[in-house]
Amino acid sequence: MTAQWEVVIGLETHAQLSTAAKIFSGASTAFGAAPNTQASAVDIALPGVLPVLNRGAVERAIRFGLAVGATISPRSVFARKNYFYPDLPKGYQISQYEIPVVQGGAIPIMSPARGEIAVRLTRAHLEEDAGKSLHEDYHGMTGIDLNRAGTPLLEIVSEPDIRSSDEAVAYAKALHALVQWIGICDGNMQEGSFRCDANVSVRRAGEPLGTRCEIKNLNSFRFMQQAIDYEVRRQIELIEDGGTVVQETRLYDPDRHETRPMRSKEDAQDYRYFPDPDLPPLVISPAWIDAVKASLPELPAAMKVRFETQYGLAAYDATTLTATRGLAAYYEDAVKALDGEPKLVANWVQGEVSAALNKAELDIAQAPVSAAGLAGLLKRIGDGTISGKIAKDVFDAMWAGEGDADAIITNKGLQQISDEGAIATLVDGVLAANPGTVAEFKAGKEKAFNSLVGQVMKATKGAANPAQVNAILKRKLGG
Amino acid sequence: MITATIAELSAALHAKRLSSVELTQGVLDRIARINPALNAFVTVDAPGALAAAKAADAALAAGTAGPLAGIPVAHKDVLMTAGLKTTCGSRMLANFTAPYDAHVVAGLKRAGTVLVGKTNMDEFAMGSSNETSYFGPVKNPWHVDYVPGGSSGGSAVAVAARLVPGTTGTDTGGSIRQPAALSGICGMKPTYGVCSRYGLVAFASSLDQAGPFARTAEDLALLLNAMAGHDARDSTSLDRPAEDYTRLLRPGAGARPLTGLRIGLPKEYAGDGIDADVSRAIDAAVAELRSLGATTVDVSLPNVNLSVPVYYVIAPAEASSNLSRFDGVRYGHRAAKYDDLLDMYKKSRAEGFGAEVRRRILIGTYVLSHGYYDAYYLKAQQVRHLIADDFHRAYQKCDVIMGPTAPTAAFRIGAKTGDPVQMYLNDIFTIAANLTGAPALSIPCGFDRNGLPIGLQIQGDYFAEAEILSVAHRFQQATDWHGRAPKEIA
Which of B80, B206, B236 has the CB atom closest to A47's CB atom? Predict the structure, then answer.
């Protein structure tokens, strides 16, 4: 069914900027305070108060624009978006409309179906958040909490370049990683610091764009995938049954795994945008842009390419290891501490380390085994002290806080037995004790050999050098 | 003595010939006696005023007081005053107590002035006659059947009736200069951004500017010194070095102190619609200035006739958005009974706002609507630039521009309330300065056949406050129009 259908998606993302103060008032942006304790005179829109732009929010917008290769508008304009709602104290939201601070740019993503692609950005603009209306617990009344009112947001709008829910999630994850990477947003989706809306339409291949629906309330990557998949199915079935898609805003219900209408285009309000006369145009000098550029860290896309060339990593590995700034730093620190073996380190970071982090639900910054600690462990594989298999046990012990690699190896007597004579003696013992198996091998049963290797390893509790065991066994059996 | 000018009172206070408490008590008594007939005050704060007067007397005794210490003043009720009601002349805010001081209010407090009360005004500063106030019209002290002008009618009348020597007002389209003219006193709108708008309840943000009322240009300068200054809380406040607006008022300079001054007389400021008595008074004032050494030059402001239509797009547009915060949710009037949220908004705002405010909200909402924005708001902003260009060109040929402040002297209460367009045309000469942002003032220059005062408007280029004050001051040194007091309240 879907083979003849093309899905077209654009995402709008609200990233809460990590400033300590709100965008137009000095009030704190900290999450979780008692209702209305972080709402200043400006936030509650007392008569006579005026907005003053927080330059920290602008600086973060510039960081973002530079990170995605966008144009930073030398002059952008704040506008008023007028509508009445109890949690919008001024009766208008200050946003950027005709001239946003960031124009263009792109986010590179790895598409499961199309490989490496770039999702173009239309724009990113600064705006203030509204407060919260609390309808529960008030018995027919509505509670208004204005703590969030005036929190700085960067609304990032993509072009309709996305062709599947997989790509949408890849884009959202890449964006989510990037805003944290450059330090402009804490990325906390539970607290609403990073929120996505999806514009979804379908068309038969080669046809003009179909009518889109905007889906709101996608507050996790999983919900985003489910909501888009549902919406695509709904639209295709509707059209195939002879219906037409109506342009509307739909809300995703994660309990029922479906989207449902919120408001139609006919209900759309006339926001009567006009330039906010309280705020002069935002002028950004080339010097300011240069200063921000100088403070930017190496970006994930550049770092990925460097990892491929400098460390000889495959594109997939380089992408995974640059997923977050913390993970990339951990990897590089480990490589530096080990002074080599970048592929071995890559395997361990993506394997044991990531698995342990996932299991413990920890962030890389909280990993009980440091990059230096990991390097200390890997060094003992390289110099033959322990095997890769034993190393995994040592890693688990390190994770459990039992000490560094060398201490654990010594305390548990895990040094690999590489002494030729000692292993030969052990092999002789195993051969003598298992004449039946030896006979099977000689009769052509290859599996019997593995069994004999296993016996030797078992006798040393895995400490014997497996390569040596193999070689000696072969020599003794084969003659 | 209590009806003297600020400069005179300041000299008396510093010479200890008078205490601020005596002066303030006298002022309070005079307000109690005269205000009921004029309705200039919405709020009088006698205890607060006397406490401030005591503090001023202490500062005067200690020798630490500035020129405004102990001087009673009143503020237009659109400026926030901590602990006092700030009503904006509206039912919407009839019971609203301001939790903070506006920047200009704080500046005048720091200078030691004594705040005696808040003055009546057109509702949310929308009006030219002070007839739209929820608290009733203000009466012209020259003839109580006539309007005092608006929207700062209460502030103008408080000075004209010698209730206080100085007041503050706000001027969005002439709301200081026009009532100054119609009430026979001086009023000034500084360059946009000279006085912070923080604490000024916004009518039209790109046009609103606070300024002083007084009886002399010198007093205006003294008040402006305390009101001006950069304020980081207002992003449109100008960050310029502080200046002394009295600096050009020094006496002397001989018999022709205005030698070298070029007065521009726009041909568009003469002609139909201007009352003959007004024209005669302006001509006489210009002749007087010529005799003081000034020369006159004809200039043209070809687009200035578009000021009123441009203003009545931009000001209501901004107002429609600025007044959205009065929704009955957090403060202000909320209807007693409503069915749901929308009904609460509708009833609260319909009850809270008067007819003129509702009219302007509707006009503003209309001109900003989808499909109309380009034709109205955007076009109006473009014409606004053309008007500013006209003035820029004119100032290549002259130093100041003069003409009538208003086309007629005061009109009878009720005469224009049924015809908004006639009412709006009252601001035909004052609006341009708001559209361009340049400074302008009005001083008395004569009377019409009914004995009602006429105002001369002196406009200057950006930041020419001290210059136009100086021209006004020279005129007042040579004439005594500003010294005439209305008989009815003497």
Answer: B80
What is the residue type of B326?
F
Same domain, A329 and A407: yes
Quote the CA–CA distance of B27 and B158 in Å, as a whole number: 11
Interchain proximity B325–A91, CB inside 8 Å: yes
Same structural domain for residues A376 and A436? Answer: no
- B406 φ/ψ sector (left φ>0, alpha ψ -120 to 50, else beta): beta
DSSP track, B389-439? HHHHHHTTT-SEEEEESSSSS--BTTSSTT-HHHHHGGGTTTHHHHHH---
Span B162-168, mean pLDDT? 98
Nearest CA in chain A to B373: A272
Tell me, yes or no, whether A284 lies in a domain: no
Mutate to test the interface with B, among A40, A49, A94 (most CBs of B within 10 A): A49
- One domain for residues A367 and A397: yes
Across the interface, do A50 and B201 touch by the CB < 8 Å criterion?
A: no
Domain count, chain A: 3
Residue A287 within any structural domain of the chain: no
Interface of B with A in 297-326 (CB under 8 A): 317-318, 320-321, 323-326
What is the chain B residue with the closest CA to A282? B235
Rounded to the nearest integer, the mean pLDDT of chain B is 96
Does the beta carbon of B463 lie under 8 angstroms from any beta carbon of chain A? no
Active-site residue identified among B20, B76, B133, B189: B76
CA trace torsion A84, A85, A90, A93 (10° rounding): -90
Cα dihedral B169→B170→B175→B179 (10° resolution) = 10
Residues A215 and A358 in one domain: no
Is there a single domain that holds both residue A59 and residue A31? yes
Q: Is the pLDDT of residue A222 over 80?
A: yes
- A399 and A431 part of one domain: no
For chain B, domains (ranges, CATH) are: 1-490 (3.90.1300.10)
A290 within domain boundaries: no
| pLDDT confidence band for B27 (50 / 70 / 90) | very high
B89-111 pLDDT, tens digit per residue, is 999 999 999 999 999 999 999 99
Task: For residue B102, list chain A residues with Cβ-Cβ distance below 8 A.
Answer: 48
Query: What range defines the domain where residue A50 resides?
Result: 2-274
Shortest CA distance from B317: residue in chain A: A274
Active-site residue, B175 included: yes
Inspect the interface and report whether the beta carbons of A50 and B345 lie closer than 8 Å: no
Angle between helices A466-478 and A446-459 in degrees, nearest 10: 130
Q: Contact B235/A51, CB-based, under 8 Å?
A: yes
Chain A residues touching B327 at Cβ < 8 A: 84, 86, 91
Contacts of B295 (CB under 8 A, 6+ apart): B261, B262, B263
- CB within 8 Å of B457: residues ≥ 6 apart: B177, B181, B402, B403, B404, B405, B429, B430, B440, B441, B442
Selecting among B175, B196, B348, B470, the annotated active-site residue is B175
> In terms of domains, do A267 and A305 share one?
no
Residues forming beta bridges with residue A261, ordered by sequence position: A250
- The question of whether B267 is a catalytic residue gets the answer no
Q: What is the CATH number of the domain that holds A426?
A: 1.10.10.410
Closest CA to A357 of A345, A346, A369: A369
Query: Which residues numbered 64-123 in B keep a CB inside 8 Å of some CB on A?
Result: 79-80, 86, 88, 93, 96, 98-100, 102
Residue A266 has pLDDT above 70, yes or no: no
- E-strand spans in B34-165? 41-44, 72-76, 114-119
User: How far, in Å, CA of B490 to CA of B159, rounded?
Assistant: 13
Supply the pTM of this predicted model. Answer: 0.91
Domain assignment present for A48: yes
Residues B330, A274: C-beta atoms closer than 8 Å? no
